[in-house]
Design brief:
Layout (H helix, E strand, L loop, with lengths): L5 E2 L4 E2 L35 E6 L8 H9 L2 E7 L3 E5 L14 E2 L4 E3 L7 E3 L6 E2 L3 E5 L1 H8 L6 E6 L2 H27 L1
Length: 188
């Protein structure tokens, strides 16, 4: 398809850029109708307050641990890539034996491994996993969450699944309005 993109973990593609590499752009052309600033999409603004739907494995967490998750400020660690990010803060304890089978993992899952530091799975996450998920970040907040950088803090608020659906619809409406503004601008 003509792509020159690279998947960094595997090296598949055109290769990973290194210091002193040169990038050559062939056949560049100036399009006056595309000149100027692009409006920043509201959906991409950094979010230090992220909404989650609790579960699906709440049985592995005491009510006090869930409360701790929802009332603690967590810091994004430097262990951060397109697969996920490890959070630093209160250690979340798991109740009982950890003997669950691997299950499907949606983007935004908040897994809690044995060490107690939550992991939020991002775009290139694995497809299955066996750590319990205390919550899943809602889709409407995920892009904004991904704009945070290591050492920034984040806090979580639980909402009902129905409210997550309303937020998704609202976000879709905002994205469509943003794209329409861009279309009108480039067609002017």
């Amino acid at each position: 398809m003509g792509s020159v993109a690279t998947h960094a973990p595997t090296g598949f593609g055109a290769g990973v850029l290194k210091t002193n590499d040169e990038v050559v752009i062939d056949n560049a052309r100036f399009l006056p109708e595309r000149e100027g600033l692009l409006p920043f999409p509201v959906t991409g603004k950094p979010r230090d307050h992220v909404r989650v739907v609790l579960g699906p494995q709440q049985q592995f967490f005491a009510p006090a641990t869930i409360e701790q998750f929802l009332t603690t400020n967590f810091t994004l660690s430097s262990e951060y890539d397109r697969m996920g990010v490890k959070l630093i803060g209160a250690k979340l304890s798991i109740e009982g034996a950890l003997d669950m089978p691997s299950q499907a993992l949606p983007r935004g899952s908040v897994q809690v491994p044995g060490h107690g530091d939550p992991l939020i799975l991002l775009s290139d996450h694995q497809t299955t996993g066996g750590y319990p998920k205390i919550a899943v970040t809602i889709g409407a907040d995920q892009d904004g969450f991904c704009q945070l950088r290591p050492r920034q803090s984040v806090r979580f608020t639980a909402i009902a699944p129905e409210d997550a659906i309303i937020a998704a619809r609202s976000r879709a409406k905002a994205e469509n309005a943003y794209l329409e503004r861009l279309r009108r601008r480039t067609n002017a």
